[in-house]
Design a protein that fits this description.
mainly alpha; globular
């Protein structure tokens, strides 16, 4: 299945200001931490970030997309591919941060609501496009760096390797039968992409 690009509305009007985007995400993270996913509304974000509702819609199509983008920032996925660490260590750190994010109250709220959502709801789409796709992109970049550094053997199928990394994570997330912990992440990485001896 082809990878889905993160959803965002067409850019129009004045160029987007990164400071405004940061203020919106900070507001959304604060709302997410205090009240869970249901607290993240366009009205609440606009009030907390001191921006207009149309300004928020210039960056994201709905409140669920803003919430997922804010949650994504807690995992550090956006910066993982640029990390100065050795790529395998950076990949491990990225997935550790993901485990930590889901262990926090906001992460548990996100997990519960995503698990209960139907596949075509705005929440499910936002989770796929804002969270899963961007984490996969970061991991793909790190795996490519690992290959270039000869830290791992090139996988026969990169997309399958990414599925094998994220499939167990999201299975635990959606089924809730076991926690996503750093120890689980370490065992998963060692099983799917063992380092060269």
């Amino acid at each position: 299945m082809p990878r889905q690009a993160p959803s965002s509305p067409p850019q129009r009007g004045r160029p987007r200001d990164p400071r405004t985007r940061a203020a919106i995400l900070t507001a959304a993270r604060s709302l997410l931490d205090r009240g869970g996913l249901t607290a993240v509304t366009i009205e609440a974000i606009a009030q907390k970030a001191e921006v207009s509702r149309p300004t928020i819609y210039r960056y994201w199509p709905n409140a669920q997309a803003v919430a997922m983008a804010a949650f994504l920032e807690t995992t550090g996925a956006g910066d993982a591919a640029k990390s100065p660490r050795a790529p395998l260590a950076a990949l491990r750190a990225q997935l550790h941060a993901l485990a930590d994010a889901f262990a926090a109250p906001a992460g548990r709220s996100v997990a519960a609501m995503v698990a209960a959502a139907q596949s075509e709801t705005e929440l499910a789409k936002a989770f796929r496009n804002e969270f899963i796709a961007r984490n996969r992109d970061a991991t793909r970049s790190l795996l490519e760096r690992c290959i270039a550094d000869e830290a791992i053997d090139p996988p026969e199928d990169m997309e399958l390797t990414l599925d094998l990394i994220f499939g167990p994570l999201f299975y635990r997330l959606l089924m809730g039968h076991a926690p996503i912990t750093r120890g689980f992440v370490d065992r998963l990485i060692d099983a799917v992409i063992p380092a060269r001896a």
